[in-house]
Amino acid sequence: MHRTVDVWTIRNLSEYLIRNIRRSGYSYDAAFRGYERSRRLNPLLRRTVYAAGRDLLSRYYTLSHAAKVIYGDADPRALADIWVHYFGRGFVVEEERKRFSKKIARDAPRGKLPEMEEIMEDLDEISRISVETSYPRWLVAELHSAMGSEVVEMLRALNEEHRWLRVNLTMTDVDSAVEALRAEGVHVRKHEKLEYMLRVLDYDGPLSKLKPVSAGYVTPQDLGSAMAAEEIDEDDGLLFDACSAPGGKAAVLLMRRNGVVVGCDLSAKRLREEEALMRRWRMPGHRYALAVCDSMRIHRRRFDQSLLDAPCTDSGDVGRNPAIKLMLESRRIVEHFRTIQRALLDSVMESTRELVVYSTCSVLPEEGELAVKGIEQADSRIGLPSGYWGIGHRVYPHVHDSGGFFVSRMIPARSR
User: Fold this and answer.
1) Integer Cα distance of 220 and 241 in angstroms
2) 319: nearest Cα among 232, 408, 400
C-alpha cells in the first residue's frame, strides 16, 4: 500500500459497510460508493480504504469468532478493532496501529490479545475450517459432506478474486486484444480451451478504466459464466437465454453459435442495459431479441435449446463481492432461491425440445446437484469435471482459477 489510513477510518468504514449491507443487501462496490458519498473520502486514500474494506468483509467470520472470544460480542466496531490488530499492517499507519493494539489489549479481559491460533483452540474440524477460511459454519458443514477435506483448498481459492476478460470476437481477434492490453501494461494468459477468455495476471487497477474495455474490444466476465454458455450444443436453432441480463452469456452464444438467441429477463432496466451492451459489442442485431418476460411462465415447447443461469445466493462469487458473506449468515437465503430455481427449471424444461443447460454461480449443492438430481444428464462438451456425488459438472475455484459455478446439461423428457 502506498498510503495508509487511521484507525477511526477503519472503525467508521466497518460500521457503515456492515450496517448497510445487512439492511439493504448491497454489493460491496455499491456499499462502498455510499460510504464515499457520506464521508467525502480523500481521493488519495480511496484505493487503500477500498482494499481495507474488502479485506475486512472477506474475514468477517474469522473476525466475528475472535471478537466473541475476546470481548464476548461481535459488533462492527469490535470487528474493526480486531482487524486492525491482526490484519491491519500495511493498511493502517503503523505507529498508530501499534499504539491502538496496546490500548485494546489493555481493555481485553486478560489484559492481552491472544494469538490467532489460541483463538481457534478446542474448535471441532468444521468450526475450525469455518474460522480459518471465514465462512459460516452451516456452509462449511454442507460442503465438507460433499467434498471432504478438499473443501479447505476450495474455500481458500474462493476467497481470491479471479479476474478474467472476454474478447469480443465480433470486434477484434484474440491476439490483437492481447497486444492492446499489453500496451496498457496489462499481461494476460489465454485459457487453454476458450482462447477468447483471458486471465488478468498482474494488474489490480479497475478494469473498466482500460482503453480496450472502454472501446468494447474486451469486457470483464467470469470464466464460469463463459463455460456455462459453451455447454450449449452447436446448431443453428432457436436458443433461449432465460435470465439474460446483463448479457455476458448471450454474447458468448452469439459469438460462438449460429442460432438466434431470445433473451428474457424480468427487469426492463437491466434489459435496456443489456441492449446497450450488445450494440456496443457489435453483436448481430438480426440474431437476437430481448424481451421483458417471466421465464417461470413460458410453457410452450418452442425453443431448441435453453440456457438457464438461475438467480442464486452467488456463493461462488465471493472473491469478487465479499459482501455476499454477510448475506450467507442465515441458511434461509438458500431456501428462498431454491423456490425460484425450481419454478424456473420446471418452466424452461417444459418449453425446450432438445437440451437445457442449467447453471448457478453457487458452490452449494442445493442450488446445483440437488436441484437437478433425477433428471437425465448429458456429458460436458468442454470436459468440465463432475459435480458433487457425480451429478452435473462444476467449475471449481481451486481447479479452474475462477469463481465457483455449477453447470448441468439436461435432456427434456419429451426429447428422449
Assistant:
1) 19
2) 400
Cα 193 to Cα 172, 222, 273, 382, distances in angstroms: 19, 15, 29, 8
> For residues 14 and 153, what is the distance between their CA atoms, to the nearest angstrom?
28
CA distance 356 to 294: 17
Q: Quick check: bond before 397 cis, omega within 30?
A: no
d(CA 218, CA 167) in angstroms, rounded, equals: 4
Between 202 and 173, the higher pLDDT residue: 173
Cross-strand pairs, 241: 263, 307
Task: Look at residue 416 and tell me whether its pLDDT is greater than 70.
Answer: no
- Rounded Cα distance between 175 and 178, Å, is 5
Tens of pLDDT, residue by residue over 293-346, are 999 998 777 899 999 999 999 999 999 999 999 999 999 999 999 999 999 999
Question: Which residue from 153, 146, 144, 141 is spatially nearest to 406, judged by alpha carbons?
Answer: 146
Structural contact between residues 132 and 61, judged by C-beta atoms closer than 8 angstroms: no
Which are the contacts of 177, defined by CB distance < 8 A and separation ≥ 6? 165, 167, 198, 212, 217, 218
Kind plus residue range of the DSSP H or E element containing 336: helix 332-350
Q: Give the cell for residue 101.
A: 493494539
pLDDT for the residue 353: 93
pLDDT bracket for residue 1 (50, 70, 90): very low
Cell of 165: 476478460
141: exposed, middle or buried (C-beta count within 10 Å: 0-12, 13-18, 19+)? middle
DSSP result, 352-392:
EEEEEEEEES---GGGTHHHHTTS-EE--TT-PPB-GGG-S
Give the pLDDT confidence of 225-266 residue by residue, as tens digits: 999 999 999 988 999 999 999 999 999 999 999 999 999 999
* pLDDT above 50 for 60: yes
Contact residues for 33 (Cβ-Cβ < 8 A; gap 6+): none
Count of Cβ atoms closer than 10 Å to residue 31 Cβ:
24
- The H or E element containing residue 262 is strand 260-265
Instruction: State the average pLDDT for the chain.
Output: 94
Helix, strand counts (H, E) of the chain? 19, 12
